Amino acid sequence: MRIDRRVAAGLLIIVGAVLGTVLGISLMQGSDADETARYEVTVQFNTNVTQDDLD
């Protein structure tokens, strides 16, 4: 019985997504289970913007 390449690729994507989700959940629970998830945001400003660029 041959499996179509598209079907095999779809199954691999589904299995990868499930494994990634399980791994992510287990890592989040393992690190500081009593705290909520923390997000880090980096903001960079472009110092070369002039008033003409804003107008």
Walk me through what this model shows:
The termini are far apart. With 55 residues, the protein is an all-alpha fold. It is elongated, with a radius of gyration of 22 Å. It is built from two helices and no strands. The chain has one domain (5-54).
Task: From the structure above, extract its key features.
55 residues; mainly alpha; 2 helices; 55% helix; 0% strand
Shape: elongated
Terminal Cα span: 65 Å
Succession of helices and strands? HH
The value of Rg in angstroms is: 22 Å
Low-pLDDT parts are none
Count of the domains: 1
How many strands appear in the DSSP assignment? 0
The DSSP helix count reads 2
- Percent helix: 40-55%
Q: Strand count, sense and closure of the main sheet?
A: none
Helices and strands, with pairings:
Layout (H helix, E strand, L loop, with lengths): L4 H26 L20 H4 L1
Quick overview:
Helices cover 55% and strands 0% of the residues. The chain has 55 residues and is mainly alpha-helical.
